[in-house]
């Protein structure tokens, strides 16, 4: 077996990225909140078995950049034509991300 490329040992790069999210509810004025999402690359690979007639792995791993820590926040929207004139909506905010193993079907 040949030596593996240096790319296979690259450090995972999984982090939060900022974006603007518009929170809407019928009858209310929209509100823009700053949120975060997970973005980056995580290491994964697939090593095939030596038998060509079966498509199975001797070893495989797959990792995804996913939320590690989240919180739910309540956003208050102004709804001038409703009674009461304010409504709340809960949204999920990502605080931290990490590379985490995920199961894949091949």
CATH fold label: Cystine Knot Cytokines, subunit B
Radius of gyration: 22 Å
Give the class-level CATH name. Mainly Beta
Uncertain ranges: none
Give the overall pLDDT as a whole number: 85
Proportion in β-strands: over 45%
Main sheet makeup: 2 strands, antiparallel
The appropriate CATH architecture is Ribbon
| Amino- and carboxy-terminal Cα gap | 24 Å
Shape: elongated
The CATH superfamily is Cystine-knot cytokines
How many distinct folded domains? 1
Helix coverage percent of residues?
Answer: under 10%
Q: Which structural class best describes the helix and strand composition?
A: mainly beta
Subcellular location: Secreted
Protein name: CTCK domain-containing protein
GO molecular function: BMP binding; receptor ligand activity
Organism: Mesorhabditis spiculigera
Offer a few descriptive terms.
DAN_dom; signal; two-stranded antiparallel sheet; Cystine Knot Cytokines, subunit B; BMP binding; two-stranded antiparallel ribbon; elongated; mainly beta; CTCK domain-containing protein; about 0% helix; disulfide bond; about 110 residues
């Amino acid at each position: 077996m040949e030596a593996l490329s240096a790319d296979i040992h690259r450090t995972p790069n999984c982090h939060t990225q900022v974006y603007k999210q518009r929170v809407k509810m019928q009858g209310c004025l929209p509100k823009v909140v700053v949120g975060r999402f997970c973005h980056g690359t995580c290491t994964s690979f697939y090593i095939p078995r030596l038998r060509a007639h079966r498509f199975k792995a001797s070893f495989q791993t797959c990792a995804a950049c996913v939320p590690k820590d989240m919180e739910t926040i309540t956003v208050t929207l102004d709804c001038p034509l409703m009674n009461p004139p304010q409504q709340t909506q809960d949204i999920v905010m990502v605080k931290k991300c990490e590379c985490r193993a995920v199961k894949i079907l091949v």
